[in-house]
Amino acid sequence: MARGTRGLPSERFPGGVSRALLGLVVIIGVTPARGQEPEPEAEQARPADAFVDSIGVNVHLGNTDTIYRRYDEIIRPRLAELGVRHVRDGLRAERRDVIARLNDLTTLGIRSILIVSPEEAVEITRAASASTWAVEGRNEPDNKGGGWEERTRQEQAALYRAIKGDPATDQLPVVISGMANTRDSPGKLGSLVESLDYGNMHSYPGGLPPTSGGWGIPLSKAIAEARKVCDGKPIVATETGYHNRLAERGHPGVSETAEAKYLPRLLLTYFDHGIARAYLYEFADEKPDPEYGDKEQHFGLLRVDGTPKPAFVALKNLIALLADPGPAFEPGALAHALEGDQQDIRRVLLARRDGTFDLILWQEVPSFDLSTREDIEVVPRALTLRLPAPVGRVEVYRPITSTEPDGRVEGRSEVPLRVPDDPLIVRIKPGPPGG
């Protein structure tokens, strides 16, 4: 998509009148025949901050031969800049340096899910008690050779007994190991509901839009497979994401531009599917690889020199726009309707504590062509947001570019929109104009 496209049509006409306002005059001034418009219906919103709290990233703070050794110089300040509240890491008990860094991150409001062995689980989580949100079993055991099913069952049961058997750790959630193969490994493992608090999945889309669950299956199928292990308990995705090695065939990569569109969509899609938290893999490219020969060095939100990729900027802006910390509250419902061609349009409705609603819209279409290895310029979709009565203010934001509004109107009940293939936040503030 062209960088200059805006959420509200905003090209200037002679005299300085914006097309956004002209479009509103036309819509309000000419009333279509009744029965041709969708009637606004109430939709229950979810707390905006609940979405922000569902975002995590993977780190490797103990990898001293990678960018992660530059903790004070790069990793810590960039985590603070991103605004994320959750990280995932794995460690052994002797790595007191890593434990110290994890505990230090709590001063930024960041907590951890830790991959630990049953034997060291209590020792590690006691030492990292300020940081630890949950523990997770062995990473991707289905990649560890034959007999992994029974080995995983035994290790998971031992981890659960260890954590729940110590009064200092018995309140910590225990997460099942994430499987590398989302298609059928969970079914081979079977139900372990007595040895876990959360299910898990490592659902990499493989260069496709976020509704892919990897391994040639849709996300809905990956979630259904994960439920074969956890039944009705909640699910986290402790790994998911995209890399930028375009020549990779088995697990295709995407451009940095496409990644900046896909990752915010992925997080919103997982939240909309009821995934309790999704941890992007990973925070930073680990080692220099200027020839792009190893995909493992290109999953980061940061480049290996610590500079942000476009996806980092898009996520930072998304978090900044939607963060709304505070005590629990009951979000309201918003009566609204969308008019126009809604094929492939996805939406998530969030609410803030001040009564403002954030309606997030995007086109769930490919943004990258895996055959040509080129970005796809997606034409923004023209839609109209209809509300049952004029509202105080409507603002439109595109986090991929900025936290500043792309357009603003007041006292209107119908708003023209141009929906791109990256998330568009339509902020609706009830009340009188200017309020």
TrEMBL record:
Matches recorded under SUPFAM superfamilies: (Trans)glycosidases
InterPro entries: GH
UniProt name for this protein: Glycoside hydrolase family 5 domain-containing protein
Annotated organism of origin: Tautonia plasticadhaerens
